[in-house]
Amino acid sequence: MATSEQVSLVRAYTGEPTEETWTDVALGPLIDELGIDSTTARVWREKQARYSKLVDVSEAGASRKMSQAFDHAKTMAAHWETIAGEDAAIATRVHKIVRT
After folding, report:
1. pLDDT at 22 exceeding the cut of 80
2. What is the C-alpha end-to-end distance of the chain, expressed in Å?
3. What is the pLDDT of residues 28-73, one digit of tens each?
4. Which of 2, 12, 45, 98 is the most exposed place for a label (fewest CB within 10 A)?
5. pTM
6. CA distances from 17 to 10, 14, 58, 63 (A)
7. Has residue 15 been placed in a domain?
C-alpha cells in the first residue's frame, strides 16, 4: 500500500491538496500499480479532460483566458509522462543466465 508520504507527493505535484477530487483511497492503489510519476501524469490527464470545457471569456472590457488551464494541464501531463518513461527506461532488470 502506498505510504502517506507518496500520496502527499502526488498531491503536491498535481496541485490537489484535498480529497475533493482524488481521495487517498483512490490514489493509493494507483501509486502501487503505476508508481508516483505515472500516477501524477494520470491525474494531470484527468484535469486536462475536466478543463477542456473551459472557454475564453471577454466581456465588459475584461477578458479571461480560461483555456490556459487546459494548456497547462496538457503540458504538465506530457512532462510527467516523459519522467515516468525515463524512470522505466533506467529501471534495473534481472534475468536468469542460461548456459547453452
Report:
1. yes
2. 41
3. 999 999 999 999 999 999 999 999 999 999 888 888 899 999 999 9
4. 98
5. 0.79
6. 9, 8, 30, 28
7. yes
The domain total for the chain is 1
Whether residue 98 lies inside any domain: the answer is: no
Structural domain including 44 reads 4-89
Q: Phi and psi at residue 46, in whole multiples of 5°?
A: -65, -40
Q: Give the bridge partners for 62, in sequence order.
A: 59
Instruction: Enter the C-alpha cell of residue 49.
Output: 479532460
Number of other residues whose CB lies within 10 A of the CB of residue 19: 13
DSSP letters of 12-45?
A: HHHT--STTTS-HHHHHHHHHHH-HHHHHHHHHH
